[in-house]
Amino acid sequence: MESAPRLTPRIKSSPPERKIESMPPNLEEFIPEDRLPYYIDVYDNDNGPGSKISRLVLPERPVYRHFGLSGLNLETWTKFLERNPVRFVRRFPWPSPASIFDFDKGANGNDPKSTSGYPKIGQIDLRNHEYLGSGNHSYVALAPLTLPSTTDAPPVHGAVAVKLALFDEGELLMNEAKIYCAFPRELQEDRGFDLPSVVPKSYGYYQASHGAFESQSLVGEFTNYERKEICKVLQHVSTFLLIEHCGVQIDPLVGKEQEPVLSLFKRLHEANFVQGSPSPRNVVVQPGPLTVPKGERSLHKPSYRILDFGRGLSADFGIGRKHPEFLAERKEAEMKWAQERLSLNEYF
Question: Where is ATP annotated to bind (predicted)?
C-alpha cells in the first residue's frame, strides 16, 4: 500500500486576545453567484492597530504620510474598529440586481425594481482567525464566513480562506479574482475519481466601501476631520478574495506522486487557463476523496488543488484572449515547468 503524501505542516498564529468561538468546519459548498452577499462586514477590532486590516494597510507611520494621513492617530483608528465593522462591497463576480437584494416573492415577484428587497450582508470575523500563510504579495487567514438567509435558503456558516493583498499589490489579487470568475463550475467541484476538482471554489472579491462609512451617523463619535481622515484610510484598505480552504502545501513530489497533480494542470490547460507560477507552494492537499463524508476521507486517497492565479491567464480576457497563440505557448511551457518544479530532483 502506498504511503500517504508528505505534508508541510500548517503554521498557526498565536491565538487572539479574546477567542470569539471555535473555528467552524470548512465551507465546501458551491455558492451560486446570486447567493453571494453584496456587502460583507468585517469584524477586526480585538487588536486595534495591530489587526489584520489596519496592520496590512498601515504597517508603518511613513505610510500615513504617503497617503497624506499624518493627522490620523492610531487611537482614532482603534476607536473606529472597536465600534464599527469595516464594510466591503463585492466587485467580482459583478453583482446583478438579484444578487444584491433578497426579494420578497409577493406581488412584485423578483422584479429588480421592487423596493421590497433588502441588501444581502455577510460577515467575516477576523477576530477569530488562523494564519495560513503569506508571501511577497498577499496574506492568507482562515476565518468564519456567515452568509445571510434568503427567502429561499437558510444562512450559511463556515470557515474560508481570506486572501488579502499586501500594500500596493492589489493588481495581482484582482487578476486572480477575474480568473476565479472565469472558471467553469466543473473545475471547482469534485465529480468523482476521474474528474476531481482542480481549483478551490471562490466566494467573491471585495473592496472596502468608504461610502458606507460616510453614510453612517457618527457625528457624536468622531469630529468631521476624523471622519474625513478615516474615509481616506478606507480607500487604501486591502481588497480581499474569499476562497475554499483546501488543505496544506505539498512537499516536492517523486515518481507516481506527480501524476495526479500534473493531470490537474492538464485539465486546467484544456479549459484554456494558465496558472502562471507552478511550484509546490501553489499546490495543496487534503484527505480525500471529497465525494465521501469527511470522516471517511484519507490521505491515502488525497485530493489536490492548484492555487494562486495572480499571474494566471485565461482565454476569456486580457492577453490570453487577444493572443491565443501566446496562451498556447504558455500552456506548453507551464507543463514543462510543473514537471520540473514539482519534482524532488529540483531541490538537490
Answer: 163
